[in-house]
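[step 3/7] inverse_fold.run input=structure_tokens len=491
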């Protein structure tokens, strides 16, 4: 039997208010404000009855011109990627140094998954204990004959570095040639004594704290009970689906915005009305706090998730019921950690399912290129004899890193403006990171010249696929494509 969420019925009215689509006016105000905040003057969001929202050019764009940079509303780095890339937890820029990126990755690979902390968010929690013993002697690293072959993972054998080298790279005692040309912002001290979040700047640390991290921090200064409950929630998400971490951020940010709005409101109101109820949920303030989430197209996760290929359609109902149970389990864990009685509707399964469904329908890859790749390419491009000289040091490191010596920062995120862009199989724009785009923002560039007034479209799928396959892929997004290319190729 399906589990029943008591909040669903208890807060039915509030839930239906939260899930009713915003008015045209609210949508227009929200996106106009967002565009002006982003100083994005080339585009606008327009609504029409047929397809909902769309993004339109209000000026001409040349081929390859930047159309939009879109900071994420919420985003998370994949937990497995945290071993490979050390990035700012708010803007996802690489931080530390080239040496730190490489040393940390080798060190975490060396200690192996069994020794790592249960929770991936804490893999790095004991770095203060690392002894900075020697090992920076480069002659060690040239002595490849004595090195054992590493058999882990990759098909190409990795050749480990002598003991201590990874730590020396990580803690800055060993400097690589030319690495100064690839400097990264240093990690700044973290609020809350937190070990699982790292930042490129104080402004990122503060922004993250204010938007959601103050509720989701598992740092040493958080209450032990709260911390334990949060770690359970995070562990479950890491083992099942990190979309739950995005949902937790969305809920936390709504809670924090609500209390901020309420504090401002009470401050004004108390001057003439002392009879207001401080612990009573103010639905109009909750609606305002919820506004950014209200804008995304939503369906319940278990209703909109695509049926995996290996599941027979006769098992569809059982599959959808399992997905619902999974979400309910995650919600119970989150509720134990951050429940707020005043904002009970936010902890209903109906709301949780719709938030996750919104991410399922609109979530986009978060990718940030690694500076480690640039670094090794630079070394490879050096002229003789500088190249040979540098490679004496860098070659053993490259061998230790193996074939996949540089891994991008990868995760998943919700980009408010990109998610308004409609699909076309012959799009005029695409998501594309240029060399200078080094953080988690979505970057959209023009694929061809775009005229003022034209709708800006991107492709949600591989648009080179044959007609039938394209339509099948797009069915997962819930529509049949009627773009010019599809109309022309329709059998
Ligand atoms: Zn940052
Ligand atoms: Zn924290
Ligand atoms: Zn099409």
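[step 3/7] decode complete -> sequence:
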């Amino acid at each position: 039997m399906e589990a029943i969420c008591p909040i669903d019925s208890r807060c039915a009215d509030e839930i239906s208010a939260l899930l009713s689509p915003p008015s045209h006016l609210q949508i227009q105000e929200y996106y106009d404000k967002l565009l002006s905040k982003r100083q994005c003057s080339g585009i606008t969001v327009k609504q029409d009855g047929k397809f909902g929202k769309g993004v339109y050019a209000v000026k001409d764009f040349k081929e390859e011109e930047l159309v939009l940079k879109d900071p994420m509303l919420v985003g998370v780095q994949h937990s497995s990627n945290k071993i490979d890339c050390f990035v700012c937890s708010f803007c996802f820029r690489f931080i530390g140094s080239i040496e730190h990126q490489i040393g940390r990755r080798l060190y975490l690979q060396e200690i192996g998954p069994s020794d790592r902390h249960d929770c991936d968010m804490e893999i790095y929690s004991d770095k203060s204990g690392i002894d900075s013993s020697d090992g920076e002697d480069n002659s060690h690293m040239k002595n490849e004959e004595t090195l054992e072959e590493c058999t882990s993972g990759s098909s190409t054998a990795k050749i480990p570095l002598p003991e201590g080298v990874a730590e020396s790279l990580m803690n800055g005692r060993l400097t690589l040639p030319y690495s100064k040309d690839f400097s990264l912002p240093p990690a700044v001290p973290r609020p809350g004594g937190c070990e699982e979040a790292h930042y490129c700047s104080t402004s990122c640390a503060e922004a993250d704290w204010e938007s959601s991290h103050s509720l989701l921090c598992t740092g040493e200064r958080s209450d032990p009970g709260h911390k334990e409950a949060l770690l359970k929630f995070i562990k479950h998400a890491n083992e099942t689906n990190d979309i739950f971490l995005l949902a937790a951020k969305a809920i936390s940010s709504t809670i924090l915005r609500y209390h901020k709005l309420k504090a401002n409101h009470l401050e004004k109101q108390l001057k003439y009305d002392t009879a207001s109820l401080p612990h009573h949920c103010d639905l109009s303030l909750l609606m305002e706090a919820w506004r950014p989430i209200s804008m995304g197209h939503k369906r319940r996760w278990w209703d909109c998730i695509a049926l995996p290929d290996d599941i027979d359609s006769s098992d569809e109902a059982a599959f959808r019921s399992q997905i619902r149970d999974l979400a309910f389990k995650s919600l119970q864990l989150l509720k134990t950690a951050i429940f707020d009685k005043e904002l009970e509707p936010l902890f209903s399964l109906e709301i949780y399912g719709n938030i996750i469904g919104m991410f399922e329908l609109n979530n986009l890859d978060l990718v940030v290129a690694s500076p480690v790749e640039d670094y090794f390419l630079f070394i490879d491009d050096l002229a003789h004899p500088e190249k040979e000289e540098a490679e004496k040091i860098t070659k053993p490191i490259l061998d230790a890193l193996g074939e996949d010596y540089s891994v991008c920062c990868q995760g998943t995120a919700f980009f408010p403006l990109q998610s308004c862009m409609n699909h076309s199989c012959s799009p005029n724009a695409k998501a594309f990171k240029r060399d200078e785009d080094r953080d988690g923002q979505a970057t959209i560039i023009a694929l061809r010249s775009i005229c003022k007034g034209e709708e800006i479209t991107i492709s949600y799928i591989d648009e080179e696929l044959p007609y039938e396959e394209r339509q099948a892929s797009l069915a997962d997004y819930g529509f049949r494509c009627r773009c010019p290319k599809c109309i022309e190729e329709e059998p």
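[step 4/7] annotate
Residues 114-155 have pLDDT under 50 and may be disordered.
The beta strands are 43-48, 52-57, 66-70, 74-77, 364-368, 409-414, 422-423, 429-431, 442-446, 455-458.
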